[in-house]
Amino acid sequence: MAAARVLLLSGRPESVSFAQSVCGLLGAGPGLGPWPTYCGLKRGELVLSDRPFPGASARLPLQRPPFCPFSALDQQPRAPGAELPTNRGVDLAVAVVLQSSDQTVLLTRRTQTLNVSPNLWVPPGGHVEPDEELLDGGLRELWEESGLQLPQGQFSGVPLGLWESAYPPRLSWGLPKYHHIILYLLVISQESQQQLQARIQPNPREVSALMWLGPDVAAAVAATEDGTETPRHLPQDLPPSVLAVELEENGGARPLVLPTSTLLRTTPATADSKERVSTGTKFALRLWLQHLGRFSLFLHTLCFQVELG
């Protein structure tokens, strides 16, 4: 775990300390981003730079939430006793946005007993192990959480973007204890949602429910912006609920009719564990829809509806 680190290239690759804002070090301004970032995707590590460098294999959007605690800590004096770890760097995680052949993506709800981000809807993912290829790490996490193993030759992978993640996610919740850069990987399967769902065996220690989102609902979720006071207008034809599968204590599963409004919640100013979609997942859904060519069309339709209203 200790070898899986985020490095910044400034002459030579250097580790980023826990308390530093990665976006800030790469020159992020006061805006919301995202910021194009050059990446070297290597075994167990991620090298980042704001300019091209030998070995850079991708140029990806990097984003953080508007309430990122590391950004806030950069801009205000540290309160007495407000100590952050000095012997840790920024960890590397990978999350798999699994797309079925009929263009739906898999989200899982983290169990309430987890110490980090309980009860949030996220793609399968987790830490990258030392010397592990990033795609291999993503596929391992997909298997560990959902039981899905994708047949060789029946899927392809595309890096979507990078997210600077903290937990707790806001300073008003307390000082951050975890700091990650999450690489969101789009994995496109040749199998349908029905074929994939038939093989899913969720890990009950980490997953309490799962669902498949289509582009229309995903676009509405992605358009709800955390950190803003005024919510966006939503499409008039948005379904009132989505169908999910919830795990039971006896090891079985049952259908779950989940109100769409649950997926549209934003991160509250005070700590709670209400069910919602994580802010980073909304960013990943936007990138997925852009890959499909759907998000700009959704926003255009939304603006048209608002004008008519």
UniProtKB/TrEMBL annotation:
CDD domains: NUDIX_Nudt17. Keywords: Hydrolase, Magnesium, Manganese, Metal-binding. The keyword Manganese applies. Its EC number is 3.6.1.62. Its cofactor is Mg(2+); Mn(2+). One of its GO terms (cellular component) is cytosol. Residues 89-235 form the Nudix hydrolase domain. GO terms for biological process: NAD+ catabolic process; NADP+ catabolic process. GO terms for molecular function: 5'-(N(7)-methylguanosine 5'-triphospho)-[mRNA] hydrolase activity; metal ion binding; NADH pyrophosphatase activity. It catalyses: a 5'-end (N(7)-methyl 5'-triphosphoguanosine)-ribonucleoside in mRNA + H2O = N(7)-methyl-GDP + a 5'-end phospho-ribonucleoside in mRNA + 2 H(+). Pfam families: NUDIX (PF00293). Acts as a decapping enzyme capable of hydrolyzing monomethylated capped RNAs (in vitro). Hydrolyzes monomethylated capped RNA after alpha and beta phosphates to form N(7)-methyl-GDP. Shows low activity towards unmethylated capped RNA. Belongs to the Nudix hydrolase family. This is m7GpppN-mRNA hydrolase NUDT17. It comes from Tursiops truncatus. The gene is NUDT17.
